[in-house]
Amino acid sequence: MKAHAQRLIAARLGLALLTLLIVSAMVFALTGLLPGDAAQQALGQAATPSQVAALRHQFGLDQPAVQRYAQWLMHALTGNFGTSLSNNLPVRELIATRLPNSLVLAGLTTLVSVPIALTIGITSAMFRGSLLDRALNVLTLSTVAVPEFLVATIAVLIFAVKLRWLPALSYLSDVSSFDALLRVYAMPVMTLCCVIIAQMARMTRAAVLDQLNASYVEMAILKGASPMRVVLRHVLPNTIGPIANAVALSLSYLFGGVVIVESIFNYPGLASLMVDAVTNRDMPLVQGCVMVFCAAYLALVLIADLCQIVSNPRLRQR
């Protein structure tokens, strides 16, 4: 790999770390602005002022904000996000118990959404300008415009209330067979897939169309290659980088929609843990959850940038 590409990758890594540092400062400052007293919330309304003051001192809440941020940042670099104020357990352990559930939900959503989105995007590009292409464009645009909470609410009304095919809430304790697994994950995965498939399909269509307008495609057509052969043998190998970039960017939207989906379906993931922490004014837990989400989002965006750099010869060889 050329030195220029290595410098670009190093710059992207440095920018991601700087972004993570800025986000950590913003998260720490914003959680400090949450209304109410975290110590009072943890002890209840019957607690005496001396008890509240003692708990604030125990968790270091009576220290200056800058000092608390510096201490928290130093511990966070080692993976220690402190102790939860609401249940007196390490934040790292609470995150470790919920993170696998969120990863399973994200993984199932990826397995379902990526093949469907790539098929829609490639098919739409192959039949550009046709009735099928226009119908798919209208469908994807309409889906992008619908927010996740509305899709989830409509899904609950139709499949849980009206038809009674699926449970309205996702209880992982009910997963005892493959059929139960499908029932529990059906509506959360379907809700997350709606927007992600539409975004990914449109970006895939744009990447394939860009290659279909290239001169080498015209040469292949003049040599008698069929449209299917042109796409499979000539276009797709040259769109691996842009399509990987589209997939990574589209999957980054998971971390916005999963907060809404886990809350609506009562799914025991990291996002619902963060919502409960905000309700309880549990600042260390909120900070830890937000930093995990931010790190995952930046990792996907960084992967998208790296795919763009590696797949672009001008960036590699300049």
TrEMBL record:
Where is this protein found?
Cell membrane
Q: Does the keyword Protein biosynthesis apply?
A: no
What does the record say about its membrane topology?
Answer: Multi-pass membrane protein
Annotated ABC transmembrane type-1 domain ranges read 99-304
Q: Does this entry carry the keyword Ligase?
A: no
Q: What is its main location?
A: membrane
Q: Name one Pfam family in it.
A: BPD_transp_1_N
Q: Which UniProt keywords apply?
A: Cell membrane, Membrane, Transmembrane, Transmembrane helix, Transport
Q: State the superkingdom.
A: Bacteria
Annotated GO biological process: transmembrane transport
What residues form the membrane-spanning segments? 103-127, 139-160, 180-198, 243-265, 285-310
| A cellular component term, taken from the record's GO annotations | plasma membrane
Q: Which PROSITE patterns match?
A: ABC_TM1
Q: Which family does it belong to?
A: Belongs to the binding-protein-dependent transport system permease family.
For this entry, the protein name equals ABC transporter permease
The scientific name of the source species is Paraburkholderia guartelaensis
Classification from the root reads: Bacteria, Pseudomonadati, Pseudomonadota, Betaproteobacteria, Burkholderiales
